[in-house]
Hints:
Elements: H1 5-8, E1 23-27, H2 53-65, E2 70-74, H3 84-93, E3 97-102, H4 115-121, E4 125-129, H5 135-142, H6 146-159, E5 171-175, H7 186-201, E6 208-210, H8 217-226, H9 229-238, E7 253-256, E8 262-263, H10 266-271, H11 304-307
Parallel strand pairs: 1-2, 1-7, 2-3, 3-4, 4-5, 5-6
Antiparallel strand pairs: 7-8
Amino acid sequence: MHDTLPLLEKVRFPPISRARLDTLQVNLGYKCNQTCLHCHVNAGPNRTEMMGAETLALISEVLTKRDIATLDLTGGAPELHDGFRDLVRAARALGVRVIDRCNLTILFEPGQEDLAQFLADQKVEVVASMPCYSAGNVDKQRGDGVFDRSIAALQQLNALGYGVPGSGLKLNLVYNPQGPSLPPDQQRLQADYKRELLTHFGIVFNDLYALTNMPIQRFGSTLVSKGTFDTYMDLLQNSFQEGNLSGVMCRSTVSVDWQGWLADCDFNQQLGLSLGAGGVRRHLRDLLKIDLEGRAIRVAGHCYGCTAGQGSSCGGVLEQDASCSMSV
């Protein structure tokens, strides 16, 4: 696989600094039941990296010490970690909002038959991967049969109240473009999703998040192999919106890898970029002693992916009126 970091480090990006820490985004490990082309962590069934018990125990301590409002769990498939459910229970007992970044098909893996009910009982917010509302596009990006299983999973979640108005159970979907293009207007795309999923499958959900594909890991390597990496970077840079800088997720979120090491965002984590511009390696345990507010954020060329067009973050677009759907 091609390493895109040397290419990204040649690209200048405006300096930004941290605001108050609001969200702890924790990658519990790279094991996943799917292998997706756009996956920026290169997750898959054969990955064995999983967070150890000592590091896992630190999470609740940090949530309490820093008065963090949101715990955002990701992977791989975070639900495959043996400590996933205990961690969720502990965080919810602290009154922390918990997000599960779910690929939907995990609900049908052996041993996960009661996962949907567990998530509902704990009032976990589900953010589910759903790159399109048509079978062909989903299976092309995520694997054969993924669409049908995703639909069945969404229907199962709906039956428990997820996405249903007044239930208090949030179900948000995630869209990624098929290739090297910026996502279309999020509001219009959300309307299309809601219409098509309701009409054909009786499915409802709360919001759609349109995310830009990052030129790193599996997707970035594919761009290099096809000779389109530079063209995609030009698209991102030419679509830069300065107004997005104030809302990028790295200002209020810190990313924790499966070993407990900190990065400014999930993408920096996958590039091996340590927290902060100084390059000093920090661990989750350091958050028990230090405050990150005001510190410089580590930036490189991939940061244009979060600031191009509408902008892109783990919570969807940053600018509702700055849409762009150009491709290369």
